[in-house]
Amino acid sequence: MATGALKLYSYWRSSAAYRVRIALNLKGLPYEIVPVHLLNDGGEQHSAEYRELNPQELVPTLRDGHRIVRQSMAIIEYLEETWPDPPLMPDTARDRVRVRTLSQIIACEIHPLNNLRVLQFLERTWNVPQAERETWIRHWMQEGFRALEATLADSPATGTFCEGDFPTMADCLLVPQVYNAVRFGLDLSEFPTVAKINEECLTLEAFQNARPENQPDAPPS
Questions:
Q1: Which of 17, 74, 156, 187 has the fewest CB atoms within 10 Å distance of its CB?
Q2: 200 and 118 together in one domain
Q3: CA–CA separation, 18 vs 13, rounded Å?
Q4: For residue 221, what pLDDT band results from cuts at 50, 70 and 90?
Q5: Domain end: 55, 86, 117, which one?
């Protein structure tokens, strides 16, 4: 049972927090954004107060009353199990495992190699110049997107969205990763299925409202 009002500790440009915002919006759940600025004062996620909430010092964190949920995929599955309608997972085990596979290609293979703390380590510890850091980002994104594109394009289960014709957890992860890819200049022409699904997702209000530039902590444009 849910225990209270939902609060999402989020940073406007965090792709992991972006995933959860999409899921919350798709389910029509009201929630409060609690901004955690990942750059101000060395990163607000490193404060003692936030560390107590999330020992990994990462966003997002979801607070549901007294319950604390960490890690974006775990949060999305918690939302799915607590508020099952509308669903973000298919009905059958075979289809659910495909959604989890697609999600983990992004969350476990693409995202960890280009997130903020990895880039900060490359910069601060090894003095890797920005141009080389961005080459690193594009390389690992390209490798991951090739696997993702092949998995999507080779399956009759792929429909308007990653799995069939309604958005699932996989789409919640795909759109933020495409946002990152565009941000760092990755050419998406190699990934037409990924690009098409991303375009379809962004026609939906739930995805639009979750976009980084539409967050309360986003800087003025």
A1: 156
A2: yes
A3: 7
A4: confident
A5: 86
Same domain, 78 and 99: no
Q: Among 55-69, 123-137, 195-209, which is the least confidently predicted range? A: 123-137
- 161-164: list long-range contacts, CB under 8 Å, 24+ apart: 161/197, 161/200, 161/201, 162/99, 162/102, 162/197, 163/90, 163/95, 163/98, 163/99, 163/102, 164/90, 164/95
| Cβ contact 158:165 at 8 Å | no
Model confidence over 3-33: pLDDT tens digits? 568 999 999 999 999 999 999 999 999 999 9
SS3 helix, strand, coil % of the chain, rounded to 5? 55, 10, 35
Domain span at residue 168?
A: 93-207
**Residue 171 and residue 99 share a domain:** yes
State the CATH number of the domain containing residue 110: 1.20.1050.10
Compute the distance between CA of residue 77 and CA of residue 92 in angstroms, rounded to an integer: 15
As a whole number of angstroms, the distance between CA 131 and CA 191 comes to 24
β-bridge pairing 67-70 and 61-64: antiparallel
* Same domain? 195 vs 97: yes
pTM above 0.90, yes or no: yes
Number of independent structural domains in the chain: 2
* 134, part of any domain: yes
Burial of 174 (C-beta count, 10 Å sphere; 0-12/13-18/19+)? buried
Q: Could you report how far apart the first and last alpha carbons of the chain are, in Å?
A: 40
The verdict on residue 167 lying in a domain is: yes
